[in-house]
């Protein structure tokens, strides 16, 4: 079992989008029993809140549902993930602060798996969830290609 955790600031826009898109890709490849997927926030600001309307609507166009997904904060048990996948550079810093000196899985930004050293387009101020979806799709595809080689 490979465990993957997507992380962003609020766990309502970017990381739940990555979780849902990645889950669909994994299902389509018939790998659901081999890859466990979750997401979390570096903050507690949105704790218990559902996925942002913008993410929900963009994913509905891909026939992806986010029903039953709610924001939660990063917890100690999350360190057991093989891949802790951040959406941007500030997430990386916050995740590393949370981990401290403890052992954890690989901590990288999602687009690094696609060879890009930049964050996922943040829709919080721009409201451009299309750009976020494009970035998330690119990163998830690259991450899945990498994990498939390890299975
Ligand atoms: P996310 O987006 O980190 O992609 O879920 C945000 C959610 C909440 C806030 C900022 C970004 N906020 O400032 O509350």
Examine the secondary-structure arrangement and name the CATH architecture: 3-Layer(aba) Sandwich
CATH class: Alpha Beta
Per CATH, what is the topology? Rossmann fold
Low-pLDDT regions: none
Give the number of domains.
Answer: 1
The number of helical runs is: 5
| Strands ordered across the widest β-sheet | 2-1-3-4
Radius of gyration of CA atoms, rounded to a whole number: 14 Å
Ligand identities: 4-nitrophenyl phosphate
Structural class: alpha/beta
As an assembly, this protein is single chain
- How many β-strand runs? 4
Relevant CATH superfamily:
Response regulator
Helical content (DSSP H or I, runs of 4+):
25-40%
Strand content: 5-15%
Span of the ends, CA to CA: 8 Å
Written overview of the protein:
It is a single chain. Helix content is 40%, strand content 15%. It has a single domain, classed as 3-Layer(aba) Sandwich (Rossmann fold), CATH 3.40.50.2300. The model has no long low-confidence stretch (mean pLDDT 98). The chain has five helices and four strands. A four-stranded parallel beta sheet has the order 2-1-3-4, sandwiched between helices. It is globular and about 40 Å long. Strand 1, helix 1 and strand 2 form a beta-alpha-beta unit. With 151 residues, the protein is of the alpha/beta class. 4-nitrophenyl phosphate (4NP) binds next to loops.
Annotation keywords:
151 residues; alpha/beta; Rossmann fold; four-stranded parallel sheet
Describe the secondary structure blueprint for this structure.
Blueprint: E1 2-8, H1 14-28, E2 35-41, H2 53-60, E3 83-86, H3 89-99, E4 106-109, H4 123-126, H5 129-150
Parallel strand pairs: 1-2, 1-3, 3-4
Bound molecules: 4-nitrophenyl phosphate.
4-nitrophenyl phosphate (4NP) binds at residues 8-14, 45-46, 124.
């Amino acid at each position: 079992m490979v465990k993957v955790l997507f992380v962003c600031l609020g766990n309502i826009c970017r990381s739940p989008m990555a979780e849902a898109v990645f889950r669909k890709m994994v299902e389509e490849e018939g790998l659901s029993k081999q890859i466990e997927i979750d997401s979390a926030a570096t903050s507690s600001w949105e704790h218990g809140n559902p996925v942002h309307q913008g993410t929900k609507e963009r994913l509905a166009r891909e026939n992806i549902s986010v029903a039953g997904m709610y924001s939660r904060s990063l917890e100690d048990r999350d360190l057991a993930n093989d891949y802790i996948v951040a959406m941007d550079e500030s997430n990386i810093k916050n995740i590393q602060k949370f981990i401290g000196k403890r052992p954890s899985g690989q901590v990288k930004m999602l687009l690094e798996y696609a060879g890009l050293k930049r964050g996922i387009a943040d829709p919080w101020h721009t409201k451009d969830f299309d750009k976020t979806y494009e970035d998330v799709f690119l990163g998830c595809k690259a991450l899945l290609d990498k994990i498939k080689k390890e299975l």
